[in-house]
Amino acid sequence: MKPVTTPRTKPDRPQPEPLLRHVVGDALRRERLAQGRTLRDVADAARISMPYLSELERGRKEASSEVLAAAAGALGLGLGDVLSLAQQELARSVPRVRAATAPARATVGHRAEVCLAA
Fold it and tell me: How confident is the model at residue 21 (pLDDT cuts 50, 70, 90)?
């Protein structure tokens, strides 16, 4: 008689954070669709090819800041606006790390500041 086995369950793994190119592409696409504009219209206004803009929106290409600024400008936005939309999406999609495991941050008043060094 064979012993009864139960399927092994995989330990819970944290979901990987989304790639920036996916989040930025989603933000561009949502804004374009909200404006009721076509890929052709925005690509022409940004002076980039329609297939390239499509690949940016789908997160298949990593765009330079110049290209992102051009696409944002074609949508009547600044580069900061697109990055802000992407940040909002990241904040919704990435679970917060518990305070006990979060890295220490310098705080000033009620704002948290992160220092970056090159």
Answer: very high
The residue range of the domain holding 38 is 20-93
Reduce the DSSP state of residue 97 to 3 states and report it.
coil
**The two three-digit tokens of residue 92, written as one number:** 């919704």
CA distances from 46 to 42, 52, 63, 117 (A): 6, 11, 13, 33
Q: What phi and psi, each to the nearest 5 degrees, are found at residue 42?
A: -70, -40
Q: 45 lies in a domain?
A: yes
CATH, residue 47: 1.10.260.40
Considering its fold, how many domains does the chain have in total? 1
Question: At residue 37, what is the residue type?
Answer: R
The answer to whether the CB of 55 falls within 8 A of the CB of 61 is yes
Please name the residues in contact with 85: beta carbons below 8 A apart, sequence gap of 6 or more: 27, 30, 31
The pLDDT tens digits for 71-83 are 999 999 999 999 9
